[in-house]
């Protein structure tokens, strides 16, 4: 057998979702072959195929509001499911704060993985490197839109060689009473055509809401991940494609 693992994504802290390691899923040969029969396969169509085989998790991490609670160390997380685990994922680029893991702050990260089943527990820790390494972790919240589930992992302990029990990594289980179930999200391929008239392009934060025949609608979803993408896309006379989970 021959397997194809396309990526077409950045591995950079300042690009895309900020991850510097990616777990790739195999796709059908037709999505990568460059011949006359397959000219219609767009990058977005390929992205939709990959998204259907993977799960995107939004990971929120709350640093406690205590003296010296923040850390400069490199923080990692492992998600354990009923089928598999994600392996070590570095939490490099917070989507909310430039300076991550500061006292009293909540940081948000994106983690992508193949199907690991129902989320059972997590391991979170740091490498104890840097000027200020000790960290007081309040809680971790993990939201999986494609599964329709949001779980809270309370901690309330130090990850510090000189505090508590001296451990710098901890295994945490979800609080069942704080688990939220909702309608699972579905990935859509969105193609946007910007007109070819003077001033047609925009650098604004373009969003989309989808309405169904029964009157229900999705949440508002931004098409760009960051301000850099806002400057890149929606230029005059351009066609942009996005994979959006709503």
UniProtKB/TrEMBL annotation:
SMART domains: LH2. It holds the Pfam family PLAT. InterPro entries: Inner_ear_hair_cell_LOXHD (IPR052970), PLAT/LH2_dom (IPR001024), PLAT/LH2_dom_sf (IPR036392). Residues 1-25, 55-173, 186-246 form the PLAT domain. PROSITE patterns: PLAT. One of its GO terms (biological process) is sensory perception of sound. GO terms for cellular component: stereocilium. It comes from the Eukaryota. This is LOXH1 protein. The gene is Loxhd1_0.
């Amino acid at each position: 057998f021959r397997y194809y693992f396309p990526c077409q994504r950045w591995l950079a802290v300042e690009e895309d979702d900020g991850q510097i390691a990616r777990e790739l899923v195999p796709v059908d040969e037709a999505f990568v072959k460059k011949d006359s029969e397959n000219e219609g396969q767009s990058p977005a169509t390929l992205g939709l195929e990959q998204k259907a085989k993977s799960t995107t998790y939004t990971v929120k991490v709350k640093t406690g509001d205590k003296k010296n609670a923040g850390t400069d160390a490199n923080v990692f997380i492992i998600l354990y499911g009923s089928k598999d685990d994600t392996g070590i994922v570095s939490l490099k680029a917070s989507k909310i704060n430039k300076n991550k893991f500061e006292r009293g702050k909540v940081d948000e990260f994106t983690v992508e993985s193949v199907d690991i089943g129902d989320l059972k527990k997590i391991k979170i820790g740091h490498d104890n490197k840097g000027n200020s390494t000790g960290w007081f972790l309040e809680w971790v919240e993990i939201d999986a839109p494609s599964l329709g589930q949001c779980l809270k992992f309370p901690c309330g302990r130090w990850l510090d060689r000189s505090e508590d029990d001296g451990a710098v990594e901890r295994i945490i289980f979800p609080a069942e009473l704080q688990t939220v179930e909702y309608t699972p999200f579905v990935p859509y391929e969105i193609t946007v055509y910007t007109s070819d008239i003077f001033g047609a392009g925009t650098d604004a934060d373009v969003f989309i809401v989808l309405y169904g025949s029964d009157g229900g609608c999705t949440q508002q979803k931004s098409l760009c991940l960051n301000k850099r993408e806002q400057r890149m896309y929606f230029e005059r006379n351009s066609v942009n494609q996005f994979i959006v989970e709503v």
